[in-house]
Amino acid sequence: MTMTKACRRFITPFLRVLALGATATATAVMAMSHESTSVLNLTLEAKYSNTPAFRYFMIAEAIAGSYSILALLLSCKGLLSHLVLMMDMVISMLLCSSISAALAIAQVGKKGITHAGWAPICGQVPKFCDEVTGALIVGFIASALYLLLVLSSLHFPVSSLPMTTKP
């Protein structure tokens, strides 16, 4: 077995399993992130579904996780491998855009925007902010794993693998 074939056979599924674990973890942590607090007799409830960027992040992570399962079940040969490579790139871009949107909102929650009159909320709901931060870190790891999948597919293309023929 050549090195190229070994990398294609073992490294790619390993990266997919890691990416699946990261996307599933990010989705679960974001879905369970919530906290309530009282400020001046008003109840403030912080949860991911209150913010469209956090919902987008969670949905993108769930889509990437579902795709990882599908890609693990498919055998990558011929034209199908090119489709998987293109979908890996699409999922990478989806994850990057969702993380960017969620990070922007997380920054507003942490620091606020004083000239717009938006106060930071992380002082009132620190558990929620910590959970969101954890989900974003794991989501970033998932995005990096998909980038590695794309790079490994480009470096070890299926067409470079030796074809085996059976009599």
TrEMBL record:
Keywords: Cell membrane, Membrane, Signal, Transmembrane, Transmembrane helix. The keyword Glycoprotein does not apply. Residues 10-144 form the Casparian strip membrane protein domain. It is found in: Cell membrane. The chain crosses the membrane at residues 57-76, 83-106, 135-156. GO terms for cellular component: plasma membrane. The keyword Membrane applies. Residues 1-26 form the signal peptide. InterPro entries: CASP/CASPL (IPR006459), CASP_dom (IPR006702), CASPL (IPR044173). It is a multi-pass membrane protein. Its main location: membrane. Belongs to the Casparian strip membrane proteins (CASP) family. Homodimer and heterodimers. This is CASP-like protein. It comes from Trapa natans.
